[in-house]
Structures are given as structure tokens and as C-alpha cells.
Design goal:
Elements: E1 2-3, E2 9-10, E3 12-14, E4 22-24, H1 26-37, H2 48-58, H3 64-72, H4 82-89, E5 93-96, H5 98-108, E6 113-116, H6 122-130, H7 134-145, E7 150-151
Parallel strand pairs: 3-6, 6-7
Antiparallel strand pairs: 1-2, 4-5
Length: about 150
């Protein structure tokens, strides 16, 4: 087991999926949504009800259809079709770096459990299944099934 300063063993690690395994650039989504919806799409300026439905989607409290509908109703110009909303939302997804998986597996040798919150953002899951790096998605699923990474 890996040890920390006070000689205690590190037994568990929890890491986030987006921004750790999956590279993200939120400004790409802000820019794409701003263009699509016809206003500056910046989280700091959102009305409370907008922040609420964004957060609810992120944790799985609302489904994808409700999420898209809520975004569509924010449009200041022509209401965008659902596929355009999905494309703009997924603009933040940059892809994978296989070296991150190698690092994760190297940690597994010394750490009892590695926990990975599985994204509740189902629009992302669609991207993962069709991305050019879908082999990485399959590797992640395989690691989860072999209990080398524990989804939480």
C-alpha cells in the first residue's frame, strides 16, 4: 500500500471522470451554446432556474429530453433542434489520453480501491460510445467489469 506522511496507508482513491479521464474545455460549450441560443451562455450569469436544471441533469434527476427542452426554451432566436443542442453541449469533450489509463492501472497495484463516479450526463455517454476513442471507452468498461475500477 502507498503511504502518506503520517505513515497511514492509502487504501482508496476517488477521482472524477470528466476532467480526469476525459479531457474537457468548458469554454467550447459556452461558445457553442452562446451561438446556438443567441445569448451569452455563461454560468455566472444564469438565472436560478437555469442553474437548477443544469445541476439536476448533471446528477441524473432529470432525463436528457427534459434537459434539451429546457435549453431549447432559453433560445432568444429560432429554437434549435435537439441534435444541435447535443452537439453544442458536447463541444467541451476533447477526448482521451491513453497515458491516463496507464497511470490509473499503475495506481491499482498499490491502492485497494479506485472509485470513479460514472457521469449521469447521458449526452456525454452517447459521445463516449461513438467517439474516435471508443476503444478507450471499452477499456474503461472492461476495467469496471473486472472490478479494477469501482463505479460510484
Amino acid at each position: 500500500m502507498t503511504r502518506i506522511k503520517n505513515n497511514k496507508k492509502i487504501q482508496n482513491i476517488v477521482f472524477d471522470f470528466g476532467g480526469v479521464l476525459l479531457d474537457l474545455d468548458y469554454t467550447k460549450t459556452h461558445d457553442a451554446m452562446s451561438k446556438l441560443l443567441g445569448f451569452e451562455f455563461m454560468p455566472a450569469t444564469f438565472a436560478p432556474e437555469t442553474t437548477k436544471f443544469l445541476n439536476e441533469y448533471e446528477i441524473g434527476k432529470i432525463n436528457t429530453e427534459t434537459f434539451i427542452w429546457n435549453l431549447q426554451r432559453l433560445a432568444k432566436k429560432e429554437v434549435p433542434i435537439g441534435q444541435d443542442v447535443i452537439k453544442a453541449w458536447n463541444a467541451m469533450l476533447l477526448g482521451w489520453q491513453p497515458a491516463k489509463f496507464d497511470f490509473l492501472l499503475s495506481l491499482r497495484k498499490n491502492i485497494k480501491h479506485i472509485y470513479c463516479p460514472i457521469p449521469m450526463n447521458y449526452i456525454w455517454l452517447g459521445y463516449l460510445s461513438i467517439s474516435k476513442n471508443s476503444i478507450i471507452s471499452l477499456i474503461l468498461i472492461r476495467l469496471i467489469l473486472k472490478k479494477r475500477i469501482i463505479p460510484i
